[in-house]
């Protein structure tokens, strides 16, 4: 077989067959070309969307739910409807201790603050946080560090500021780390500068200070603004959300069926929806691409059947001169696979150009719709393998048709 494939006459015959009717040969390959183009283009687009989605949620522990207190919608145990509920550190600790599947509970407090440095000022969102936040909502630090346990224990007046705060309060090129800024007329030392992420959960977070310091200067005591609950990967975050709210209702004398008292946003549920959508999109892409490929390959098979009929006399002469049925079949199969692969290569190249164009149009900047829209080498090899298999299978039809021609009848053909 190898000798046959390297024989110049074999390929000369293939090229002669294709060149006899160039337009027909090109139109024959269009179906396969379009199928591969769709497969590469759609798979690359799906990967680009997935990359953009992962970048959007990349800073978060995705198996998480955010819970905050609101007002009640039902009277209960002597309390009137409309009572404002408050979350506390004790609530956060009870949830962590009693809900199965929880990995972390991060209590957080937030407010607005007037920030001044020299003659520059602005109003920004400020959060009191624990070091644990950097594990479940990773901060992209440009300079310095995040809050540590020593800052918490010593109630230090240190602050981690966003890049936006830096640009508003500091001149370009000035080193912010170690500098003092005034937050509500109190001096805080800047220990870090972080890049603002593509997605922020909750109120605007421009500055982070130690949780204990925040509680002290704002006189919050045990009260917190909200909590971030992260579940272990093997547990259902929807169930964790329901169990957490149930415990919070019991702790705060809220009616068991009161759905308004505690608000929440289930990041894990939303993330699962999006990943399900992306998986469905990839499945649909493979289905559409392969279905189009099959249609294109069938077109090649039909054209080869016409070609075999046109070459009836030629095949009869070859049979009369001693060509075996195997040799006739082999030649037809080589033509089928060659046409299929040639169209496939053009489809892969065209698909690559489309992905480059999509990346240039939609993949640039922090708000990119697609990030690195591409397909892996493995996908390309799988597509080529599918083409070889389909080309071989469809080539068997005209190949058997060619070998069924009897030499004497073929020579009688006009």
From TrEMBL:
Bilayer topology annotation: Multi-pass membrane protein
Ranges annotated as spanning the membrane: 26-46, 283-308, 332-356, 376-397
Record domain ABC3 transporter permease C-terminal: where: 287-407
Alphabetical keyword list: Cell membrane, Membrane, Transmembrane, Transmembrane helix
GO cellular component: plasma membrane
Cell compartment(s), UniProt: Cell membrane
InterPro entries reported in the protein's UniProt record: ABC3_permease_C, MacB_PCD, Macrolide_Exporter_MacB
Molecular functions (GO terms): transmembrane transporter activity
Residue ranges occupied by any MacB-like periplasmic core domain in the UniProt entry: 25-243
Family the entry assigns: Belongs to the ABC-4 integral membrane protein family.
Annotated protein name in UniProt: Putative ABC transport system permease protein
